[in-house]
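// run 5 | inverse folding | seed 20
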């Protein structure tokens, strides 16, 4: 049993902070934690998994077609199917551990990403007067799955600063130019940071010294601007932030989920989800093969009519043909 435990420990690289640094944690934790944690989704991504293994599966036109090809793997490529099953098992076990271990109460939700759980770990490793500084995707402050963590940092006055960068000027050479990441700084629980500093859409380090881009928000500002999500509002300039906070002091949010107020009478609904509902869609070629013919912008066969599906990216406010 001991041998098996040691083998698993070596394979999965178990690491227990208090055991590795007992003297540090006797003093309450580290004074400073700095890091650039991995940015990877725990859930197995089919396209990524098959990209270098089976191009046909990876390049399938939609999720339904891809799943059909995977389902046939036990007959067409049993070894690849075995590898896929093992990868699924590993991802599922990792997700189960993160969700049920009790260690990641704020970030082990939704579609878990490693940067989120590392951010929570980093925030817990410092002592009451320590500081944490990490480079993570800006989603740590704006994504719904991270709202519990970010909201906790705001409400406990631990958020010191968040500076969001776009990689258009290749600060990170191997990262896509459209990718957004941030410098996140957190304080220990005893510091009591009353206001946090922010900057968004920065593209170079020098922008951190540009007073027009950098602004501050208090805990009260967050509760006023985003009372439901508790995520971070995004502003390009100090003027934008100042104007918006003034507006929200005078005008209520559309719906306050905490109080149930809906002064604007707003309702929300979802029509189609491109992945989950992909089995409902047909291409023109598929419909023509079934005897349908183009009729205007519809496909028709007798009394049966299929309507065109428009994605939001195909439409602009003032041009209905924007994406065509």
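// decoded
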């Amino acid at each position: 049993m001991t041998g098996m435990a040691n083998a698993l420990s070596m394979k999965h690289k178990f690491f227990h902070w208090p055991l590795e640094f007992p003297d540090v944690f006797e003093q309450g934790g580290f004074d400073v934690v700095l890091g650039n944690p991995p940015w990877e989704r725990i859930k197995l991504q089919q396209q990524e998994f098959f990209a270098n293994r089976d191009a046909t599966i990876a390049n399938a036109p939609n999720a339904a077609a891809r799943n059909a090809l995977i389902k046939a793997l036990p007959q067409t490529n049993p070894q690849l199917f075995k590898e896929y099953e093992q990868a699924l098992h590993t991802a599922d076990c990792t997700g189960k551990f993160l969700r049920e271990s009790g260690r990641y109460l704020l970030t082990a939700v939704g579609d878990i990403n490693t940067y989120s759980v590392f951010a929570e770990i980093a925030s817990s490793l410092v002592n009451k007067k320590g500081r944490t500084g990490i480079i993570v995707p800006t989603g740590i402050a704006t994504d719904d799955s991270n709202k519990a963590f970010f909201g906790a940092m705001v409400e406990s006055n631990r958020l010191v600063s968040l500076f969001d960068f776009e990689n258009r000027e290749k600060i990170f050479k191997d990262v896509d130019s459209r990718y957004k990441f941030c410098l996140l700084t957190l304080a220990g629980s005893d510091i009591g940071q009353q206001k946090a500093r922010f900057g968004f859409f920065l593209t170079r380090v020098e922008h951190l010294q540009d007073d027009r881009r950098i602004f501050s928000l208090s805990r009260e500002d967050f509760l006023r601007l985003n009372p439901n999500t508790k995520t971070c509002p995004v502003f390009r300039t100090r003027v934008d932030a100042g104007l918006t906070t003034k507006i929200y002091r005078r005008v209520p949010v559309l719906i306050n989920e905490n109080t149930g107020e809906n002064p604007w009478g707003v309702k929300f609904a979802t029509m189609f989800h491109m992945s989950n509902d992909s089995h409902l869609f047909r291409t023109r070629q598929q419909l023509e093969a079934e005897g349908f013919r183009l009729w205007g912008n519809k496909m028709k066969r007798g009394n049966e009519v299929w309507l065109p599906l428009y994605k939001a990216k195909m439409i602009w406010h003032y041009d209905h043909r924007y994406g065509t």
